Amino acid sequence: MQAFIAFYQSYAPWLWLGSALLGLAVVIWLITIQIRLQRALRQYQALVSGTSAGNLEDVLNAHIAEVRQTVTKVQELDDRTRQIDKTLRHSMQWLGMVRFNPFRDTGGDQSFAIALVDGYGNGVVISSLHARDGTRVYAKPLRHWESTYTLTDEEKEAIARAYQQQG
Description:
By secondary structure, the protein is of the alpha+beta class. It folds into 3 domains: 49 residues; 31 residues; 73 residues, no CATH class. The protein is 56% helix and 21% strand. Strands 1-2-3-4 form a 4-stranded antiparallel sheet. The chain is rod-shaped, with a radius of gyration of 43 Å. The protein starts with a helix and ends with a helix.
């Protein structure tokens, strides 16, 4: 026992200092843990606030259900967009028009050629030739930007103008 007392008397200040530092380190560590725990609790409360059950599992299950519902809606919208795109490809999208004077003895550019073409290059070229004694109208079908009928230069130009609109 005397050896212990002698040891204690020799090293007492160092033992007290070491114990105090160790105690201080433990207190700092506990304060840090308490701050982190409070922060985690605040985040948890914010996460589960506004829910009926109030636990994390229910919040996550509700979130997963919402995500699945959103994915379903996005898929439906994608399908609908594809259907609309398919339908729109068959509508008249491109228009090219040329006004011209086919006869030298009449005035004004009263004649025209107009090309109406869908997204596949199918459509019609309508030509109108205006003369003193009357007006004649012609229509020629287009298939992939071409016609099986002979086209005039003005009709070709109208088709070219429509084709340029594709960008």
